[in-house]
Amino acid sequence: MKVLKLILGFFTGGGATGLAAEIRQARKDQLDANTDKRKLAADERMHQLATQAMAQTTGSATWLPKIMRGLLALPFWVYVWKLVVWDKVLKLGTTDNLSPELWRIFIVIVTFYFLDNTLKMISKR
Description:
Mean pLDDT: 78
Number of helices: 5
Structural class: mainly alpha
Strand content: under 5%
Low-confidence stretches: 11-15
Number of domains: 2
Distance between the termini: 41 Å
Number of strands: 0
Shape: elongated
Order of helices and strands: HHHHH
Radius of gyration: 20 Å
């Protein structure tokens, strides 16, 4: 249980969303800097965060992370399709609800799936 909370904490507060918040704050600091010393410090911080963001996304171009993401998400997509198609549309069954821990994992996976695709579209512009 503690391991799951640690992993979820990383993904929900320390992963991409944490980095994005740091980048937003660094950009604000960069715009608010009124002395050369503060401007230099803010520029340095932005460079560090940009390097960190690039390091986190570099591995996503290879095939292994894509397969691992797909395998991790597959059970949740099957669950959603069963709920929607089999249980709701065809009215052929009922499915037990996920536990709160699995719902959190599901939300993280879905959020990162759409966040990843959105960031790819934005970066192509």
